[in-house]
Amino acid sequence: MNLPFAKLIVSKKLESTILVVLLVIVFKFIFPTTESWAAKIFGELLVFFALLLSTIYAAKFTALRKDNPISLLINSGILNAVVFFLIALSSTLFDVLPKLSSSITLIYTIISLLVSFTFMLSVGYIFSSLRELYILKQKKETHKSYDSMVTFFILSFFAALIPDTESNPNFVGLTLFVVSILLIVVNSFRVSWIAFLSKKQKLSLLFISTLLAVLFGLNFALSFDESFINQMLVNFSPGLHIVFRIVMIYGTIYSSIIFFTALFHLPTAEAFDKKVAEASSLKSLSKLITTVFDFKELADTITGLTNEVSNSDSSWLVTKSGDEWELSSVSNIGFVEADEITKVLHQEGILKKEEYITYNKKKVKVQIKNDIRKFEFQALAVSPLKVHNNNKGFLFAVRRYNLPFEEDEKKSIQAFADYAAVALENAKLIEESIEKERLKSELNVARDIQYKIIPSQTPSCKELDIAAHFIPAFEVGGDYYDFFQLTEEKLGIVIADVSGKGIGAAFIMAEIKGIFESLTRMIESPRDLLIKVNQILSRTLDKKTFVTAIYGVVDKSKGVFKFARAGHMPVYFCRNGGTKQLIPNGIGLGLNFQETFDDTLEEVELQLNENDVVALYTDGVTEAKNIHYDEFDFKRLEETLKDCAQYSSEYLKNKIINKISTFVQGNSQYDDITFVLFKWTSNNKSSGVN
């Protein structure tokens, strides 16, 4: 039922109740006493509907407290006390108000209405509360017996209209009353909700039910007294008076049964509380699995809940980190003490068994610094944390002074350990996932930065047709190429490859770019520039890292390409349909920081003719592997250059990419792939290679 519709129904019930109550008030003012049967029946119908609607409306409030039966009983007790006070008060007013009623009828009528409606509302709320208690925690459909009881209540209400005299007793009303009581006894045994109360609540219930039984019983007994209040209630509505008696005896019987039931459940209350605590702890842990992602926080929560589940004095958690056992969390025990106890138990072979173990009355000698202490406990439970048959750690629970662990407690600890293992494993996986996402995010940032370092486009000039391409094997790579406009007539070109892969190589590559950016403005000779680069890198590169590079300068006015090679791949030179490898001497940057590097480094000058092609590349091109682990090698690269040298550099670049992609199809890229191609388009004459 949706909320607006529910509010509308409640509102309608309240409006109907108020309307009927007003009709009752008007009727009683017009007919305070009447001998007409028609008027009596009409008046009883009005009172019946007022009582019925007030009970239905009271159900709205009792339903809100159905999960708190103690509260329902307390409220019923308060209303009983109010009724008892009114009946007790009537004894002092017995001699006064009847005299006033003969002269001041209005006062009598108003008091009669107020008292009667107080009784009506009390009966309605108490009956509604008893109904909520009846259906609370019921597992079977038992409404038939309850509906039968309510039916006899209604029949008893209207049977009260039958005159009851000594000469002509109301046997119908008496019979209905007796049957109602019998049905009350049958239905009062529906008290299964008591079993779900804690020990503290059951103790409270013993006191409350005793008080209620006394109040209900007194009010029932006083309802037979010829007091002013009873006479007033009978004059107002005989049916209401009968129902009041029935509800009072209902409350007396129900409260008595509640008392004895709570008393019988008291010995098992502690065990029930323990089971509730276990279920609550498992529920809390289940919730933590989906809400807590911090491993340390989860571990601390698990050790705390372990004490509740097993009723232990101390607990601690040991998890596996590689091949070692690591103390992750403690509860009610010192960290050092728990760690030392774990080591002692490990030496005894407990952690190697990877199965549930309990010890009773055991002493463990623990040496903390220079102090040897004896740690004695009444019971120790060790439960492995297994996920998919893999042991992820151990959960320890210790009782120092209490009784040993019972069989059901052992099972509870095992079940809790299984939940804890899943929770901890999820937390670890989530932490790893978050860490991977963080690294992925950082790598994405590094990749974006690297792509900004690599030129987004090649230089444009009429003498040169340049194309370049860079494909990192991972998010970031260690390959690098760049162009430097040294003067209007001279263009610097560099290609480099940092040993290793990934983000470490990318950082070095970024450093290389900065060095080349600075030195190309000051040093013109490729050989001298590489020597200077090697000197600078001596302060930053470790012994395991080196860089291969080729740096060259194209003099567009002379058609000359002068370059030096620091341990890099051979340069391919294509002319007139032929190809040639150029391999000047030189070792990689960072391999040697002495004179050996300077002495072995050779500078070559290449005179360019029209349509000559120069190819610079990294080892990722020739070492690209297919599914059979065959390499693309120099031969395939050379054939591609030879076949397509007559075309533009862009066409040649795309052809090389297609050839490599086709060759390695089905296998992942192992290394960064980078190459720079330039074609001399001027028609100057040359003498060849110098």
List the helices and strands and how they pair.
Layout: H1 3-30, H2 37-64, H3 69-93, H4 97-103, H5 105-135, H6 143-159, H7 171-187, H8 199-222, H9 228-236, H10 238-291, H11 295-310, E1 314-321, E2 324-331, H12 335-347, H13 350-353, E3 357-368, E4 371-387, E5 390-399, H14 407-453, E6 464-471, E7 479-485, E8 490-498, H15 502-519, H16 526-537, E9 547-555, E10 560-566, E11 571-575, E12 578-582, H17 595-600, E13 603-607, E14 613-617, H18 619-622, H19 633-644, H20 649-663, E15 673-680
Antiparallel strand pairs: 1-2, 1-5, 3-4, 4-5, 6-15, 7-8, 8-9, 9-10, 10-13, 11-12, 11-14, 14-15
Helix pairs in contact: 1-2, 2-5, 3-5, 3-8, 4-5, 5-9, 5-10, 6-7, 6-10, 7-10, 8-10, 9-10, 10-11, 10-14, 11-14, 14-15, 15-16, 19-20
Strand content: 15-25%
What oligomeric arrangement do these chains adopt? single chain
Based on CA atoms alone, the radius of gyration comes out at: 48 Å
| Count of runs of 4 or more consecutive helical residues | 20
Estimated helix fraction: 55-70%
Label the overall shape.
elongated
> By CATH's scheme, which homologous superfamily of the largest domain applies?
PPM-type phosphatase domain
The N- to C-terminal Cα distance equals: 95 Å
Strand order across the biggest sheet? 2-1-5-4-3
Major sheet: 5 strands, antiparallel
Provide the residue-averaged pLDDT: 79
Question: What do we call the CATH topology of the largest domain?
Answer: Phosphatase 2c, domain 1
The first-level CATH class name of the largest domain: Alpha Beta
